[in-house]
Amino acid sequence: MRDTRLAVLQAIREQGQATVASLAAALGISPISVRHHLTGLQAEGLLKVSLDRQAVGRPKHVYSLSQAAERYFPVAYHTFAERLLDELKASLTAEQVAAIIDRMVASIAARYGSLQLSGSLEERLHKLVDILGEEGFRAAVRRVENGALQAELNCPYVFIGQRHPEVCRIDHAIIRSVLGRDVQRMACVLEGDRLCIFSVAES
């Protein structure tokens, strides 16, 4: 995203609700330029727009951020999760921590396991790519003899996993639950591999 559009988003966030005039004043650019950027941001689904009808004069368009815009602002979820896991491991036994993670993994797997897909293995794997996308994974599938290989092009848990590798079980559990068959991990980013790769048997 262009720097100016990011600046527009930041200004709207600071103001809460903004008009073309207030944004032009805050950013030091012309109202025409502001409208141009607002149109682009609105087309991307990053803005909510309402009309402020005043007693005198024409109504004004008022802009605020949509939930989708939050991805353009810094977050520290992995830092929070790391600290939480650190505290759990400091306060509980290894067995208790493992049991908590087991329940979490089982809950996530059960959520998607209820969606067990029909069709050929290849069709189910391609649908699984979309499901994994909901969990933050970008995945790709390649057909091989007697099955398929699924590669994860990123890992949303890579920072947490460096200190807490238990989280690597989440994607494995999702794949196994949705496909309803055994899945073998062939490569893992946290073990020095370039990608996480799973082998899925034909039957």
UniProtKB/TrEMBL annotation:
Domain of life: Bacteria
CDD domains: HTH_ARSR (cd00090)
Gene3D superfamilies tied to this protein: Winged helix-like DNA-binding domain superfamily/Winged helix DNA-binding domain
Name of protein: Uncharacterized protein
